[in-house]
Amino acid sequence: MREFLLSVAYDRWILPALLALPLLGAALVLIGNRTSTEGDDEVATGAADRPRLVATLVFALEFVLSLGLWWSFDAGRSGWQQRFDMPWIPSWGIRFTLGLDGIALMMVLLTTFIMVLASFGSWTSVRQKAAPYYALLLVLTTGMLGVFMSLDLFLFYMMWEIMLVPMYFIVGIWGGQRRIYASLKFFIYTMVGSLLMLVAIVYLGLQAQHEVTLHGMRQVVPDFSYDTIMATARVTPHAALWLFGAFFLAFAVKVPMFPFHTWLPDAHVEAPTAGSVVLAAIMLKLGTFGFLRLAVPLFPGAAMNPTVRTIILTLAVIGIVYGALVSLVQPDFKKLVAYSSVSHLGFVMLGIFALTVQSVQGALMVMINHGLSTGALFFLIGMIYERRHTRLIADYGGLARVVPMFAAMLTFVTFSSIAVPGTNGFIGEFLVLLGAFRTYPVLAVIAATSVIITAAYLLWAIQRILFNPLDKPVNEHVPDLNRRELLLMAPLLACIIWLGVYPAPVLRRMQPAAEQFVRIVETRAAMATADAQGGR
Amino acid sequence: MLLQQVADAAQAGAHPLSGTAARYVWLLPVLPLLGFVLNGLLSLTSAFKLGPADPSASHDDHGVHAPAGLEHGGGGHGDDHHVVARHRHAGLASLIGPGVLAASFLLALAIFAAMRGAGGGEMHAPFVQRYFSWMPVGDLQIDAAFHLDQLSMVMVLIITGVGTLIHLFSIGYMQDDPGYPRYFAYLNLFVFFMLVLVLGASYPLLFVGWEGVGLCSYLLIGFWFSEKANADAGKKAFIVNRIGDFGFLVAMFMLFAHTGKLDFIGVASAAPTTFAFGGAVVTTICLFMFLGCTGKSAQIPLYTWLPDAMAGPTPVSALIHAATMVTAGVYLIARSNVLFSLAPAAQLTVVVVGALTAVFAATIGLKQWDIKKVLAYSTVSQLGYMFVGVGSGAYVAGVFHLMTHAFFKALLFLGSGSVIYAMHAAYHHTGNHDDAQDMRNMGGLKKYLPVTWVLMWAATLAIAGIPPFAGFFSKDEILGSLFLRAHGSTLAEAHWLGIPGSAVIIVCYMLGLAAAFMTAVYMTRMMLYTFHGPNRTGEPERGYLHEAPWIMTGPLVVLGVLSVFGGWLNLPSLLPLGPVGLLDHWLEPVVGEGTLRVTKGVVPEAAHSTEVALIGAAVVIAVVGIALAFARLKPARLVPKSQSPAEHGFEKVLANKYYVDEAYDAAIVQPIVSGSRGLLWRGLDAGLIDGMTRLLVQGKDDDDAPGTTVPMGGLLSRSVGWIGSQLQSGQVGTYAWVLVVGVLFVLGAFTFR
Amino acid sequence: MLAESLFFSAVLFTIGVVGVLTRRNAIIIFMCVELMLNAVNLTFVAFAQVYGAAGQVFVFFVMTVAAAEAAVGLAIIIALFRHRQTVNLSNINLLKG
Fold first, then answer.
1. Per-window interface: B 27-86 vs A, CB < 8 A
2. Which CATH entry fits the domain spanning C2-90: 3.40.50.720, 1.10.3720.10, 1.10.287.3510, 1.20.1630.10?
3. Which of A432, B167, B190, C61 has the fewest CB atoms below 10 angstroms from its CB?
4. Any domain includes B638
5. B668 touches chain A (CB under 8 A)
6. pLDDT class of C87 with cuts at 50, 70, 90
7. What counts of helices (H) and strands (E) characterise chain C?
8. Is beta strand B495-496 parallel, antiparallel or unpaired with respect to B499-500?
């Protein structure tokens, strides 16, 4: 496999190709459709047939292309792979640089994988304005992949903003009752954070400026290249604290960390099924990815400052327990899962800031697992919503007798979300807690109590949905899953078991990146502390 | 010394078991897993009807088909509206389910034979088979590996052996249930996880089985999920177990943080050098681990789930909630004997909790009317005994009682299943809706169920501790070893909450005797009310009462034989009815070192007279208990449940289980739920954080939901917007002026900087 | 020569600016804008004498833009007049926020 990939120079063209393909696909989806009048049911009229088919095929192609990364990626090597580099705006020192390490690799694969399912899962649930919907999904994919791949801070920022816009429209147009409120809230929260990040990025670019010859003239230009900034940008401890704050706000909103999380339940609840899936499975990971790639390695002195670190870890643990407790009392199943995301992402933050190899690897696993499990949960909620048009837990009960296949899958995915060993969820949470216990035992123990609450809220919810007496006549004739839905869930379930039983291949690919992260942050934080003391 | 041998054997290369049947040890759990997959497919494919391609469009497509199983009801033997509906794949499922288990048992026997051939109790190194790397992260290397030694061999034999019998019994018991293949799927999955639990070579892998069996327990307790009570019971079992699992997790984290190891061999070799004897760290680890045990093995304070777990089918109660899963905690402590032996304070805690649970549960058992509830509290009580055993460092005694208990308690549960089966069939024929599990509705059943009656008496005598039945030997060994630990052991010299260890041990010994007495009483009570006296079922039902088919009585007979003769496996030297101390010798390589550390290197030998006195006391107490029950309890005076008067005073407290469930609910569950709703969600989340957002940024909610729109909302965005809008006069001239002034300013700034 | 040209274009430009700022009639403002554009053109041409032909290229660009602007701008003014019967800008504030 590897030889074949090398023979077609896969390493050199794959990353830009992955970014370009969805954009091409978006154009393809938009042209040549049958016109349909406002308010038509496009699934019934057949107007949605072409867009959904084209989009799903493009996503499938994208996924197949990206799969080659699994083999062409050299697991034993740290540093960037599949690197692609070309000048973009030379007078501003902006380059179009892409590259992967083990962390980004898994995120890219997760994205392409989830997007196929998201598109396929919208098959019958998006019934209006189908063509623009699928086009936006495709553009969104470029944005998300771009964030994971970019090695240029300006490019990173651009991709970060690119993905915001399609999501805003997906929630705002194809969402539920309160979609305008929810999409606006989503947009405002995210924007406030990311604008400060732009300021910080520009500041960093100017710090790394150097002289180049452009059109025969010597000019001083800023440099936004990640590697250059890592190597040369020197900021004072004081400035580092502010810059870290700017990045922190952008990423913490995205994660979302307590107390910046309240946009998430609204956005999740109002978004269409695929929107919720993408939001939970991938977009939340961009926040934690930002911490891993930018905020912490660039300013280890600030991030690992004992006060800052304690505050962030405390917020993470509060998020874990608080998210779980609030989930316990949600009447709306989608909202319950949304708050459970706050809890799960708290584990990721705990893992990153606890800064041991186990906890960082665990955090990465939680990122992947949460994408799979929560994605699957949202899909299942979407399926039952299409049948009964309600998300309220109280409207169900006894469904397991009517829809056994749905019940089996929901139970299974729930157990993955509860982190029962043998499913993927356990690997992540176990590693995070195990690693975090080495550096912050008390916080790890507090975080571990969430294993109890998580079981409580999820089991209580599925009991009220699947079990108990079948006492509502309207539930007696709900049809079970169809072939398309089974096909949709099967890969997710397979991944859940695979990552629970044999996660070693994934862990091995992420190992060098995680180790390097820990090592760099530790040594640079120590240097920063020494500098600060020396300067005093 | 022992560890040195282990290391030597490992260096020597070839293990005595390599090349024997033991190399197929992976097949032991894989066979039941295969059964799970097949039965699961059978269950799903027959119940599943493919949905329409477009689920939204078909919404008004009412009444096209009522899904299978809907009319049949989920009701089972335990509830009132059970409808006969034999599953169409029942035959295949009853072939696969017990079949894979029987195959697993045969393989276990072959491995056992190989182990005996390899020296049995003389084989000092465990046989570790490594399959693949599970969690390789930095210095953490957890392999998917199986660890076969004498202790896991005993457990494997119990699980597959008793498991096979219970599977066979289930064929009869569950034959008319619409969820028949699903039942066997869950049961097979349970056995898979249980085998992973006892075969796993590291704590995390043990934890896989540990949580997995909890999961299956959840599924099986809530098997008839259409009853809210059943679904509640399953959920309660899982959540309470999770509290224990939290403890187990923390214990693992501490172990890893201090020793850097999580596999049994690594921990056992690192522990004595890493941890100071009686040190705070090892004590904390053991206490957290024991918290895990209290959850899984239903000890105070986490025992409340087990009685509720009786909501599941009766064979499930026999397999999971009596014979195997609930004993996992005992296994864990025996497995971690090196750690526990280093922490006498933790051991004393185990003993105290075990003894208290034994007495406490026994008192509740005295006043229960539901036949399965009596057995459930009896199980809790007997598990307490096992913890007294392993807690006092008498690991073999604990495991011995685990084994005999598996025999006689499985028999008791299956026997009660046979009774319930008969009662239920009778009620079903006559359309009666009374409680088929309440002993007040039974009585005089010995005439109708003679085989069950005889066998259950055998089991009752066994659990009461009457020689020469199995329970006598194991219970006597536990109490005897405990008594001996009061002097000259590390436990006696340690302190527990400031009390000298020897005093604690003597008190616990007394508690153990008291529990033995009550055990004899409540078990006799159960037998009297169920099988003796006049029959209290109605006249029409009486004609339908009959003994269960052979597929159900057959396993009962086998278990009966084991309950009578199981004690022969570890005879005390005082009663040499056959070879003495077989189990002692067999388990010596696994637990010998831990035991010796507790007894300070000497093998405790009681004086002959002391031993006779100890055994005599235990037997006398049991006999007195049975006699007292016969003398005081009059089955003839009992009336059926519907006519029974309410209890009063202390009886009422006992019948209501000391109101512990209610207290937990009021003290823990309700505050958490209402606090989360009122304080965290409505108050902090929707109130404070969202309120601030609304007040400053986003004033108006889009929908008309009341309470979400803040009157003065959007303060910040409104005021900034107002200032901005004042600049927009709409006069092009003004704009032009601003532009020119701006240009001049910029030019000036560049010129005069 | 260069200095004179620049001085002349500066004067022209200033006249244009003052016109835009002080007058209210849309047509006159429009003509003043054209005046400013031509002032800039003059500067370009003047500098082109010294630095090469690039400036002259720009003049063509500006002239094209000016022509387009004249077409669109006059059309707007006519449309405005039809609606309001006036081209006095102080009466027109459609852009007010």
1. 43-44, 47-59, 61-64, 66-67, 69-70, 74
2. 1.10.287.3510
3. C61
4. yes
5. no
6. confident
7. 3, 0
8. antiparallel
